[in-house]
Amino acid sequence: MIHHPQKPRRILAFAPSSKGLGFVVLETPHALVDWGVKSVKKQNKNADSLKKARQLTELYRPHVLVLENCRNSRRCQRIQKLIAALKSQAQSQHVKVILLSQQQTRKVFFADQPGTKHALATMLAQEFPEELASRLPGKRRPWNSEAHGMGIFDAAALAWAFQLKEIR
């Protein structure tokens, strides 16, 4: 039997937040190509996010876009509308869209054990030390707002969870 190696696939993941749009580009089987947070203006946050997402999608031409499935979640209405718009925009660009809930994502990493957002970010920084370790924010205190760079780890968790689910 002849075994043909799988072609690399490019996965793009977006993680919208109140301050911007976290993103990662993962090329299978294990290469983080690009990552960052695109800041958005206070007015027209969704329009600005959509424009930046379109530019990233056109630049990287992913095979798959992974977004958070925020149905039945506590995400604010603006973010829910933005995720729906990101999904529609990607589909209009002929990109396959995968939605993963926070529960599905965490189950990939923690099975049935409870896990924190910071613990997940730490795992990702260990998985991609050269790329993400220097960006790992400190553990958030309850009275602090979330670090701006956490969007990178949210997006990385979505992309890596999709990758791991697909392998199994």
Briefly say what this structure is:
The chain is an alpha/beta fold and 168 residues long. It has one domain: Nucleotidyltransferase, domain 5 (2-Layer Sandwich), CATH 3.30.420.
Descriptive report:
The chain has 6 helices and 5 strands; from the N terminus they run E-E-E-H-E-H-E-H-H-H-H. With 168 residues, the protein is an alpha/beta fold. The chain has one domain: Nucleotidyltransferase, domain 5, CATH 3.30.420.10. Helix 2 (77-92) links the parallel strand 4 and strand 5 (96-100). The relative contact order is 0.20.
- Specify the number of helices: 6
Order of helices and strands: EEEHEHEHHHH
Largest sheet: 5 strands, mixed
Physical arrangement of strands within the biggest beta sheet: 3-2-1-4-5
Kindly report how far apart the N and C termini lie: 22 Å
The outline comes out as: globular
The total number of structural domains is: 1
Q: Look at the structure and name the CATH superfamily.
A: Ribonuclease H-like superfamily/Ribonuclease H
**CATH architecture label name:** 2-Layer Sandwich
Rg result: 16 Å
Label the structural class.
alpha/beta
Chain-averaged pLDDT: 88
Q: What is the percentage of strand-forming residues?
A: 15-25%
As for the CATH topology, it is Nucleotidyltransferase, domain 5
